[in-house]
Amino acid sequence: MKSISLIQFLIEERRAGRMNAELSLLIEVVARACKRIAVATNKGAIGGVLGEAGTGNIQGEAQKKLDVISNEILLEANAWGGQLAACASEEMEDPQPIPDMYPKGHHLLLFDPLDGSSNIDVNISVGTIFSVLRCPDGVTEPKAEHFLQEGTTQLAAGYVVYGPATVLVLTFGHGTHEFTLDREVGSFILSRRDIRIPEETAEFAINMSNQRHWEAPMQRYIGELLAGKDGPRAKDFNMRWVASMVADVHRIITRGGVFFYPLDAKIKSKGGKLRLMYEANPMAFIVEQAGGAATTGRGRILDLQPTGLHQRVPVFLGSKKEVEVATHYHVEADAAV
Ligand code: FDP
């Protein structure tokens, strides 16, 4: 079978009128930066990249060296190409403008440079997540407020998993596609076109240690899954929790399943655990484009009107039927109050 590189795929998408040259260049640049992050990640202890950076990010979380390195790689790669008006990252309080010496483009890029940080030092898959928005017309100095667009307006979204293989999953709103890095050649090669997530599943991902803090409808839903064949769902369910969102979502993209990071009493005041703009929105876009569903437990993630660059939300995503059941339990419980 003739292999199709990412570059060739992007050229074909451009010819089909599904993206413009600037967006195509942006994706190429992000993919190139992620190859550098993959190299840094793969070096592990001998690259001197493991451990704490000794700093904290805006959310008060301790930064790992690789968080900082990955952020710098993405910022540097994206500064000079002329495809961006500004970048925003989990690791920076405010958006980063494009330096004056470089031309500015029409896009806004948001990213979580290294998702699953707590897994870096133990050699478990981590990843990069990104989302691309259009810079509003007439805005030359984008501020945080210009990034606060509903998920439905995303032009592209993707993630890269740095695992046994480095894998890039992308959507531009015309299906979800997977590319695997050929390390010898240095190119991402199309490995799955138009991925479909099975609507039904018997596998769920959740941090069970938070169970006692969950809201009643979540307790009910997971309780029914755990009851298996003898319970109301009349089916045995299996559980997986990598604790790197990219790796958990990649499993769902590959064989189906559902992923939950619900609201719980510990994180209620923050609104959730995962960040809307550079975690939930891009993952929701990718999952929906693969035939899955993504909600906050109460409504569609992509319809949320963002209120802050680092806003957190509950996340329910994956196989459609299961996301619907869990969401229904929450909506029903709210209506009964
Ligand atoms: P991490 O804090 O290690 O960066 O983005 C946050 C995230 O990881 C997700 O990747 C992961 O799904 C989740 O948090 C893990 O949460 P727990 O620590 O509760 O397991």
UniProtKB/TrEMBL annotation:
EC number(s) reported in the record: 3.1.3.11
Limits of the Fructose-1-6-bisphosphatase class I N-terminal domain: 6-192
Keyword Membrane assigned: no
Cofactor note (record): Binds 2 magnesium ions per subunit.
InterPro entries registered for this protein in UniProt: FBPase_C_dom, FBPase_class-1, FBPase_N, FBPtase
Keywords for the protein's UniProt record, in alphabetical order: Carbohydrate metabolism, Cytoplasm, Hydrolase, Magnesium, Metal-binding
Membrane-spanning parts: none
Pathway participation: Carbohydrate biosynthesis
Localization terms from the record: Cytoplasm
GO MF, any single term: fructose 1,6-bisphosphate 1-phosphatase activity
Enzyme class: hydrolase
Family matches, as SUPFAM superfamilies: Carbohydrate phosphatase
Sites where the protein binds Mg(2+) 1: 90, 112, 114
Residue ranges constituting the Fructose-1-6-bisphosphatase class 1 C-terminal domain according to the UniProt record: 197-330
Binding annotation for substrate: 115-118, 207, 273
Binding site for Mg(2+) 2: 112, 115, 279
Cofactor: Mg(2+)
Catalysis performed (reactions): beta-D-fructose 1,6-bisphosphate + H2O = beta-D-fructose 6-phosphate + phosphate
Keyword set includes Hydrolase: yes
PANTHER family, alphabetized: FRUCTOSE-1,6-BISPHOSPHATASE-RELATED, SEDOHEPTULOSE-1,7-BISPHOSPHATASE, CHLOROPLASTIC
The protein's assembly and partners: Homotetramer.
Protein known as: Fructose-1,6-bisphosphatase class 1
Organism of origin: Dyella japonica
Lineage, top ranks: Bacteria, Pseudomonadati, Pseudomonadota, Gammaproteobacteria, Lysobacterales
